[in-house]
Amino acid sequence: MTKRIFEITFEVVTFLLMLAALYAIFIYAPIEKTMGIVQKIFYLHVPAAFLAFFAFFITFLASIVYLYKKDQKWDVIAYCSAEIGVLFCTIVLITGPIWAKPVWNVWWTWDPRLTTTLILWFIYLAYLMLRGVVRENQRANLSAVFGIIGFANVPITFFAIRLWRTIHPVIITSEGINISKPMKYTLLLTFCAFFLFFLSLLKNRIKLERLKIKTEKVRAVYEEIFSS
Amino acid sequence: MIFFRKLWAIVWKDLLSELRTKEMILSMCLFSFLVLIIFSFALGAEVMNLKTIVPGILWVVFIFSGLMGLGRAFGAERDRGTLPGLLLCPLSPWGIYLAKMVGTFIFTAIMEIFTLSIFIILFNLNLLPFLLPLGLIFFLGTLGFSAIGTLFSAMSAATKSRDTILSILVFPITVPMLIAAVKATETILAGKTVTEVYSPLKILIAFDLIYLLIAYLTFTFIIEE
Amino acid sequence: MEDKSMTGMIYLFSGFSITWIILFIYLFSMVKRQKSLEIQIEKINSKLEKVQNR
After folding, report:
1. Domain definitions of chain A by residue range
2. What is the pTM of this model?
3. Interface test with A, best of C4, C11, C33 (most A CBs within 10 A)
4. Which helix (H) or strand (E) holds B121?
């Protein structure tokens, strides 16, 4: 009973924080001098990027724990977190160009962070595809190994892309935003709202996945009974 | 020492069985030749020996042809039904992995030497003064590629669309190695000082070490059923 | 001057709307999957009951 109350309060708090964040973004935060009003996309772009990273980190940790303990619940956590990570990563990769076009007049910048995010997106998309084609008895094992490889690849990819950028010099060199105090607070608020939203998404996705697994088990038992 | 002998036994088996049909090495070399020709038609023959383009094209060809050979490492074993036999070898999983990786490395290296020769002949490249440093870069890059490729070959051997998923897995992970190898090759060909090669070299070495370590830690789980 | 801020608004609007559209599509897909699972459970339950009553 108390668990249910906790869950509901959590969802309500998330919702209210989101509303507060929206207010902060559009009404409280000032309009940036050089970039204009488009800069406000930054309040979506930055938290989404951090959360995508965080989600993939959870997948990385859960994969390691799964390989140690072989308990399926860790595989479920790794999978669900990867899916939500890809979701937020997609948002980062879409809001990035939408922000870049009016400000720097290019759709894509080969900025090291954005490019590393693109590679990360491919990696975890590959993770999801791997889960789709592998047979059940090996799926958790192989996904766990790939989940570890994928995340371990990030630092080295980032350094390699930084090296690559010195070969292909790019027009846009830095972010160049002047962050004032109200902007900092808005960012913090939006970040907290999205963080709670992420946790709620993850929790519900895991619940859904567990339900699916249970249903399949029941169905298997049922079919065994009725075929004999 | 016994470890190395057992390892070499598996590598030798792979080499012998390939020597009989020569099927895979021929298709890899033919494919790389074709890709080179296509590149020259697409970009123009004069462009092909520009020092700025050569490293990029070379490594792209290496990777595409290399991918053809990767599937063989564990795919052929699975198809012929010899995989259980291989796993029963009195060798640790890490040893089996190393053996397969060495085999892949050798085949890929043969393809690379062939490709390089064709490149030199077709486009009048003079690589002689750079042979030794280039050799080192090719060695490290191919090592990284084989390390990752063998790992993923083992993973994708059991799947339906084996080669597709293999490519999808390999490409994003190989990006840092590709960037570092191309940059290093370019620096060497431009005749720059040794110090400028240090950063890509460091990345290549780090890549190789990290993935060999990860393979050591996780290969047992990949062949578990 | 005014035109620039209007284009800025359009980009801002599209950025926010695409984000929320993506999130909502995901939420809807989760709800749909849950509903289909619940239907499956219902079917299995009813078949079990039929067998029990026999």
Report:
1. 2-227
2. 0.90
3. C11
4. helix B93-123
Residues of B in contact with A134 (CB under 8 A): 155, 158-159
Q: What is the pLDDT of residues A95-125, one digit of tens each?
A: 999 988 888 888 888 888 888 999 999 999 9
CA–centroid distance for A127 within its chain? 14
Residues of B in contact with A129 (CB under 8 A): 165, 168
Q: What are phi and psi of A32, to 5 degrees?
A: -70, 145
Orientation of helix B131-156 relative to helix A136-167, angle to 10°? 150
Enumerate the residues of chain A whose CB falls inside 8 A of the CB of residue C5.
Answer: 36-37
Q: B180–A163: do the CB atoms touch at under 8 Å?
A: yes
- Chains in contact with B, where contact means 3 or more Cβ–Cβ distances below 8 Å, are A
User: How many angstroms separate the most distant Cα atoms in chain B?
Assistant: 54
d(C-alpha B139, C-alpha B143), whole Å: 6
Tell me if C30 and A40 make a contact (CB, 8 A cut-off). no
Evaluate whether A172 touches A111 at the Cβ level (below 8 Å): yes
In single-letter form, the type of residue at position B50 comes to L
- Which residues of chain A neighbour C28 with C-beta distances below 8 Å? none
How much is the ipTM here?
Answer: 0.89
B222/A142 touch (CB, cutoff 8 Å), yes or no: yes
- Count of structural domains, chain B: 1
Which domain covers residue B196, as residue numbers?
2-223
| pLDDT tens per residue across span C2-51 | 566 677 788 888 889 999 999 999 999 999 999 999 998 888 888 888 87
Instruction: Tell me the count of A-B CB pairs closer than 8 A.
Output: 86
* Rg of chain A on CA atoms, in Å: 21
- The amino acid occupying position A95 is T
